[in-house]
Amino acid sequence: MDVLAFFVEPLQYGFLTRALAVTVAAAVVAAVLSCWLILMGWSLMGDAVSHAVLPGVALAYIIGIPFSVGAFVFGVGAVALIGIVRSTTKLKADTVIGVVFTALFASGLAIVSATPSQIDLMHILFGNVLGVSAGDVLQVLVLGAVTLAVLLFKRRDLTLLAFDRTHAHVIGLNTRFLSALLLGLLALTVVVGLQAVGIILVVAMLITPGATAFLLSRSFDRMLLIAVVLTVAASVTGIYASYYLDISTGAAVVLCQALVFAVVYLVGRPDGLLWQVRRRRPGSRGRSLPEPQRSDPADRTAATPARVSDDPATSGA
């Protein structure tokens, strides 16, 4: 098989073309949002929202309405419930998040088990990107475009919120509104990602791209660009890998993203693990070892996020 046939053959199937469009769209939106989640320390909130939407998806299937509606309602509801419990108790945010999202996730499982003939649990948990229709593609593209447009439109305000919440408040920004907006966009992004990788794996798309980009750059603009480029490449690679290796598409996409992170962690940065090991080897001091150039300290300092609230439940209240 020549190179051209390798790339063209999967695109001859309509279901794979639609899967590619949905996966790339979801990956781009999740990659952009993940940069803010990483900087603000809200990764656990992304995990919570992705699991908490299960009862909404199950009820939507039973009622006969678009599952995205049920998922979004329960995603926003989970954020609100976490905020209420956090503000009325002395429990820490991670404790409240753990209690709420596991309770909602268990509720969803109970609903699914009560109506096994109505809902395919595997499709909800792990996605069914190869079975998306043209209408599903349009829905993902529209929701993804709306989410991405809001993120880019409010980029400066959200970035200031992530780097220095106090300064953002001093200059007149409504930090509560911005926090609530970001959490709402998180719920919407989870809805977009459900079609591609399902409830269980969507959290990887919300964390891995931002984490990988953070290792490579301390400039937030470059971080956004790197996250998008790497996650699109990993998504396309995952689609092709699932076709030729006959494995789960969602799992292949997430594994490709994890592989990129592993490579960056080991060798893709000046202080990567393998570079550190090589510099510490006995006898290396007398040799001229190739060492990657370090980034400008001024750039690193300027883009290092200030201490921000690690309590998304109260920051949006």
How are the SSEs placed, and which strands pair?
Layout: H1 3-8, H2 14-40, H3 43-52, H4 54-63, H5 67-88, H6 93-114, H7 121-126, H8 134-153, H9 155-163, H10 165-170, H11 175-216, H12 220-245, H13 249-267, H14 273-280, H15 297-303, H16 312-315
Helix pairs in contact: 2-8, 2-11, 2-12, 3-5, 3-6, 3-11, 4-5, 4-6, 5-6, 5-11, 8-11, 11-12, 11-13, 12-13
Global Rg: 21 Å
Order of helices and strands: HHHHHHHHHHHHHHHH
CATH superfamily: ABC transporter involved in vitamin B12 uptake, BtuC
Kindly report the oligomeric state of this protein. Answer: single chain
Classified by CATH, the class is: Mainly Alpha
> Are there runs of 5+ residues with pLDDT below 50, and where?
284-309
Helix content: over 70%
Number of distinct beta strands: 0
Looking at the structure, the CATH topology is ABC transporter involved in vitamin B12 uptake, BtuC
In DSSP terms (H or I, runs of 4 or more residues), the helix count works out at 16
Major sheet description? none
Number of spatially distinct domains? 1
SS-based class: mainly alpha
Shape-level CATH architecture: Orthogonal Bundle
Task: Give the overall shape, derived from the CA principal axes.
Answer: globular
Distance between the termini: 57 Å
Q: What integer is the average pLDDT?
A: 82
Percent strand: under 5%
